[in-house]
Specification:
327 residues; Peroxisomal Thiolase, Chain A, domain 1; 10 helices; binds coenzyme A
Length: 327
């Protein structure tokens, strides 16, 4: 059976940084509160001239350049996002922006687990031998859906885009994975459609609502993450016939430094093996893992042959882990 190799990573550079101090001019908060509870010092926000598509395409271009794969060679583009420019999907616009004319492209929504879910989905197409080159993008502009008057949520999130290129290979570098969902906990984290019924004609009514900003039960999400993430990583390691001692790097969804520390502690992974860029980016949802991965690769931290344990978790609720070998 053909396998999967990760051959490139990339991310988009957002020019607008929003510091904790700047945010505290808008809501009753402080750099000290945000940094001590979350590890976040600043986040980036998309400029009014940016689009989800433009950020995703920039990340994909950089990943393709590292992989030395041309846009014309791409068979599939998977865009993990919860914040498309178009509810019908933005992946096709990314395909057009890249000039990846041969590629089929579609969106996949699994909130902050989206990148891991998309990576595993992409791997199935490669393992069956259907496709040779796949671009997986995680991109979100949660600033569009943040309630900037709610200090319990607006301090956490940022915008961003990251991508990887996967290629069919003889040896499979997706060593193991485990994906999970629990819709009974859906109410803990939402960006939900709010129905506003309107009479269309006679006794027929339709909905003329819109999506309401993000709502979250922070404590419940925190408890969920620190219990489920170590568990799902252990299951993925088991499928890979590996143990925590084999992990070179943990590249987890960057939600909260305290969550990263707790997961590392439970698994007995030293903190210097845990990639963290939260201080600079905040929680960029589906983009956080590929951005963290790309930064660690470009800083020469992650080297060919390193075993990476990655895990996403978030709305749905969804969570999942993948154990990968870099290149
Ligand atoms: N600045 C200052 N004070 C704030 C604040 C802010 N930005 N946000 C909340 N507070 C206040 C609260 O109003 C509360 O005040 P009170 O005691 O007077 O009622 C106090 O701080 C403690 O709030 P609490 O919600 O208990 O804080 P916490 O220690 O649970 O931390 C989170 C809040 C959101 C940082 C934490 O729950 C968390 O990180 N959860 C996970 C969220 C997450 O990662 N979500 C995305 C997953 S993909």
């Amino acid at each position: 059976m053909p396998g999967v190799s990760l051959v490139g990573s990339g991310s988009a550079r957002l020019s607008v940084a929003l510091s904790n101090d700047a945010l505290s001019q808008r809501v009753d908060t402080s750099d000290d509160w945000i940094a001590s509870r979350t590890g976040i010092r600043q986040r980036h926000v998309a400029a009014p001239t940016d689009s989800l598509t433009s950020l995703a395409a920039e990340a994909a271009r950089n990943a393709l350049a590292m992989a030395q794969v041309s846009a014309g060679e791409v068979d599939l583009i998977l865009l993990a996002t919860s914040t498309p420019d178009d509810l019908f999907g933005s992946a096709c616009q990314v395909q057009a922006a890249l000039g990846a004319t041969r590629a089929v492209a579609f969106d996949l929504t699994a909130a902050c687990s989206g990148f891991v879910f998309a990576l595993v989905t992409a791997a199935q197409y490669l393992r069956t031998g259907v496709y040779k080159n796949v671009v997986v993008i995680g991109a979100d502009v949660l600033s569009r859906w943040t309630d900037w008057s709610d200090r319990t949520t607006c301090v956490l999130f940022g915008d961003g885009a990251g991508a990887v290129v996967l290629r069919a290979a003889e040896r499979d570098r997706l060593l193991g994975f485990e994906l999970c969902s629990d819709g009974s906990l859906n109410h803990c984290l939402n960006l939900a459609y709010q129905s506003d019924p309107a009479v269309l004609v006679g006794d027929i009514a339709v909905q003329e609502g819109t999506f309401a900003p993000i709502t979250m039960n922070g404590r419940e999400v925190y408890k969920f993450a620190v219990s489920r993430v170590p568990e799902v990583i252990e299951k993925a390691l088991f499928r890979a016939s590996l143990t925590t001692a084999d992990i070179s790097w943990m590249v987890l969804h960057q939600a909260n430094q305290r969550i990263l520390d707790a997961v590392a502690d439970r698994l007995g992974v030293p903190l210097d093996r845990v990639v963290s860029n939260m201080a600079r980016h905040g929680n960029t949802s589906a983009a956080s893992i590929p951005i963290a991965l790309d930064e660690a690769v470009r800083a020469n931290k992650i080297q060919p042959g390193d075993v990476i344990a990655t895990a996403g978790f978030g709305a749905g609720l969804t969570w999942g882990a993948a154990i990968l070998e870099w290149q």
